[in-house]
Amino acid sequence: MPKLPEVYKLNTYELPRRAGEMREYELDIEVPEKVGVELIAVPAGDVIEVDARLESVTEGVLLSAEIFAVAKGQCGRCLDPVELVIEKRIQELFLYEQKVERKKRTPVLDDLDSEDELLMEGDVMDLESPIRDAIVLALPNNPLCSDECAGLCPNCGGKWAELPENHAHEVIDARWAGLAALAIDEPDFKN
Ligand SMILES: [Zn+2]
Ligand SMILES: [Zn+2]
């Protein structure tokens, strides 16, 4: 069995290394671990579809891709299940390794966003970080079942949408609760 992150790797040996050459790939990536944010993510075992177009350019391989996936999570207010269809276009340049070697000899270029650079590993492109970034950016940190979701009653946890209109609890206002406590404490204080 391949190592888990291998599912994101695309071998591009069919793409001639001549500027202008192009190949298209349809990938179904079954993700070994969830991809997303805390409250909503593409769950482990689900499939991310990637329609990728690879183009040989002088410096490396240009990836243009459309990503389709369904993220599943919970409404941040009422905890109902939420599903979100993700459709995202990405474009990334993967540099040939030897081009990077050459760039490294130029100290000025070396400092320029070298950490964000994507590198070919021989013929292999690792699509994990571009796909992960695209999906994370497409997801809300606080997913809602609807913008109007009223959430839950803080006292009983009932869903406001399902509770009767006059739903209320007998609660003592926090300020009066404080006074009541004082009133009880006071006789002790005098004794
Ligand atoms: Zn909700
Ligand atoms: Zn309640």
UniProtKB/TrEMBL annotation:
Pfam family, one: YceD
Protein's UniProt name: Unannotated protein
